[in-house]
Amino acid sequence: xxxxxxxxxxxxxxxxxxxxxxxxxxxxxxxxxxxxxxxxxxxxxxxxxxxxxxxxxxxxxxxxxxxxxxxxxxxxxxxxxxxxxxxxxxxxxxxxxxxxxxxxxxxxxxxxxxxxxxxxxxxxxxxxxxxxxxxxxxxxxxxxxxxxxxxxxxxxxxxxxxxxxxxxxxxxxxxxxxxxxxxxxxxxxxxxxxxxxxxxxxxxxxxxxxxxxxxxxxxxxxxxxxxxxxxxxxxxxxxxxxxxxxxxxxxxxxxxxxxxxxxxxxxxxxxxxxxxxxxxxxxxxxxxxxxxxxxxxxxxxxxxxxxxxxxxxxxxxxxxxxxxxxxxxxxxxxxxxxxxxxxxxxxxxxxxxxxxxxxxxxxxxxxxxxxxxxx
Length: 375
Known about the structure:
Helix content: 25-40%
Radius of gyration: 21 Å
CATH architecture of the largest domain: 3-Layer(aba) Sandwich
């Protein structure tokens, strides 16, 4: 079976883990964590980058930084992973779901303003498949209503919007380094602060609400509990593994893009014939080849395709069940627009394998796709 995902190792990770052990520092914020922070800040231009134990944790930190409280509302797409919503639901907010665009499957910026109420406190966008939302329009809406914009860029590392790295366009951004992402540490994530507005407090929230980091830098003579927070730090072993991935981030992205391009070229004729639809990447967006998906005619076609691919030893998967219809979505959220696009594409989307090392299997995958589509 060719798996949907296979974690890639550059060859440096185990040596770095051994080095971390040799340093005698396995808890958070050791030398490798600082190295990863520096890489992220240099790569993205963020004022502050902080590793977390997951992207979920980074989003929870964003909710704390924005002082989200019970009764508040946060606008977001329904076509996303549950962590996007949970971060704000845990603070007592109501999540207000907005439909996505039919082309990029990102939040439809034209529907956001109508979903804003006197209780709206933030807009949280999700860059699906590493392709940016229309950030100029979204930032304009945010500025007009004095609403901060949070970027769930879990899939967006190494992607840009009009040259700006994803995760640094809104006030706060979150990356994921889960094993299914482009650059990995098993579990892991990062919070990005675009400027100094939230940087100092983010450091405090991440350190259980203490100013411990200031103490270690010699900025205070003792540290104390100064804010609400939690333990959002990853261990140094996780950071060491991630550092090995960051060393090869450009090469990893190039190899993924080559695979993505191979898929995209192969399915051009099928799209022309109306058999399926390929991903759309606007010219002003540079993507990272996080995933390759197909939109098939309907749910029955997708279900059959997945089954036939499995019989041909290739694992394919569908993606998000819309949050607005889930039990927790009905309890903690409401719809701020119609959801026709979300409901349609969630029934039709199928994701194909895309991982570094797939190069030697790609012909088999494409042949299986052709056979499964021709039935």
